[in-house]
Amino acid sequence: MHLEDLAEQAAQYRNEEAHIEREVRVCVAASCQSSGSLPVLEALKSACDSRGAGSCKVKGVGCMGLCSAGPLVAVADKDCDLNESVLYRDVTPDDAPDIMAGVCGAPVERLRCPTDQPFFSRQHRIVLEHSGLIDPESLRGYIAVGGYAALIRALTEMTPADVLREVTTSGLRGRGGGGYPTGLKWSTIAKMPPGQKYVVCNADEGDPGAFMDRAVLESDPHRVLEGMAIAAYAVGASKGYVYVRAEYPLAVERLETAIRKARRAGFLGAKVADTQFAFEVEIRLGAGAFVCGEETALMASIEGLRGQPRPRPPYPAESGLWGCPTLINNVETFANIAPIIREGGDWFASIGTEGSKGTKVFALAGKIKNTGLIEVPMGTSLRDIIEVIGGGIPDGRAFKAVQTGGPSGGCIPEAHLDIPVDYDSLKTLGTIMGSGGMIVMDETSCMVDVARFFMEFCMSESCGKCIPCRAGTWQMHALLDTLTKGRGTRADLALLEDLCEVVRATSLCGLGQTAPNPVLSTLRYFRDEYEAKLLPDA
Amino acid sequence: MTQPPARPPLPSDDKRWKLVNATMRRNGYAGHALIETLHSVQDAFGYLDETSLRFVAASLDLPVSKVFGVATFYHIFMLKPKGRHTCVVCTGTACYIKGAGGLIEGLQEHYGIDPGETTADDRLSLLTARCVGACGLAPAVVVDGEVLGKQSADTLVATLEELS
Fold this sequence. Notes:
- Chain B: Keywords: 2Fe-2S, Iron, Iron-sulfur, Metal-binding.
- The complex is a heterodimer of chains A (538) and B (164).
- Chain A is globular and about 80 Å long.
- The termini of chain A are far apart.
- Chain A has helices at residues 3-16, 30-34, 37-51, 96-104, 118-121, 139-144, 149-157, 160-170, 182-191, 212-219, 221-235, 249-264, 295-302, 331-335, 337-343, 345-349, 382-389, 423-428, 447-461, 467-484, 490-506, 510-514, 517-532; strands at 22-27, 56-61, 73-77, 86-88, 198-203, 239-244, 280-285, 326-330, 359-366, 372-377, 399-404, 410-413, 437-442.
- By secondary structure, chain A is an alpha/beta fold.
- By secondary structure, chain B is an alpha+beta fold.
- Chain B has seven helices and four strands.
- At the A-B interface, helix 2, strand 9, strand 13 and helix 19 of A face helix 2, helix 4, helix 5 and strand 4 of B.
């Protein structure tokens, strides 16, 4: 298959839909489904049929971002994106006739959600460019917006070295949290001697408060498969696994559909797009273990073992799945690949900051007006994200802290909100980007209690293989528990700080090494709250 | 040439075993298909009992200890039967900040069971999950597979009481 064939397929699809002028898009990602978007979709479809209007199409699409206002429905001219559409919030099936009447006439004012607000206008969508626009279950819909063109271009016009060069030029860093340069990782695996190699997509989004990967898989699954296939071509792999959480049944279902359709259309399988390149993808279900987000534990789990990490080196790039070189990237990293190939590495590198290129998807949650998904260029300030895009803190309360990076991250206080968000600046504040969860806390949150919550998480998620993590997190949790109950002494606090250092320095894997971060960062910025809870010195 | 190990007979003529067998066959009875197989058993029977663990171990030619070790390592696998209905309270950070603790307390008070337990009449199991990814709707619960957002203890108990 050549690029022309693909363009023809896209054109054909567009021809079939040429009579459609307006689209009614209903979010059918998990969050809006939980708020009842499926009955809304049905009601809109039947309202559309009964009008007999042939120029309007009702379709289910992926996440539009503003999850707290769901179910969301967007009415737009075909080919117009979210910012140019009329967006409705909190839609119920009863609103369907009004919405359909408003498709060609005046919009239904009582349901309107303005799209000129900063939440929408300040975003820069690359990973989420099709999210909320295309039907996640339609391969043809994906092809119509230019899908799989990057893969075919890579296979027919570029050598693996060309692909590596573009990805390296782009400056893309791993979006799973570590921020390791993607081009460098790919080159390492490409350099390994030929033979069996694997590509693994880490979709075990275990960070509580993060739901970016879920949204990408549910909204645009082909994008991830395309990125994986390009990666496999670049590094010389022929087999891929997507390790996805069993807690995300809808994401699994959409991914299965996407794999089946891509295989049938020849974008996966023995001869991808009629070239000599072969690539098979299989889904592996996680089973609820946070530690499986760690790459060596994840590989153990794919091999059917307990998800326990092992010491590195050897790194997976050298010896991964069944001892073969293995490339592991996060969902969002793979989702960035197709546009990099399409637009070129230089284009990607022109977005973002010096050390962190491109955009980042963040999941805003907690005490914030607009909860949901946003994608902004690296370097956007935290204050912009929280106060402008997120709409600030509801109920007239005051901001206290924002937690980034999940249990491996830390809390950032008001004083540092003006910092531009990128991998390196967050590190200087004692936290990390992580996969991109941001949980906003207002003045009612007790930071000692928050630290205890994260320690409880790490304690129960510790795989138990190494002593510092297994016993250290238990001890730290016990100390924090004593402190939150107001029964702690100054000696307890000193012991807690000591333990933080020991667990950080001696644990086997990332889980243990970063478990003290929430404690250290709350101690750094909110020490007075710890001290206020201490028993008076005897 | 070594002969492949003989496959054990199905533990009973319950048709659900065929689903389990199909999963193992699809993966060529490879040991690394263990987690997939356990998922399949749990989907079919609701939980993993000793019979099923032994059957899976024999079929995949793995030691029972290993199968048991994997089944107990992962949170999703249940070794006890669940009630007719399940209520999973999300205990992710966003839900925690927005009051998941209150939901659990409300259920404990109303039903007298702790997370991980089932009511004496086998009607309801109370479970917790580490973030179901519905943070925009916090606090969220999953009742019989359906995610319900923005819950309070009162609305949640009312929903659960309406279940048959």
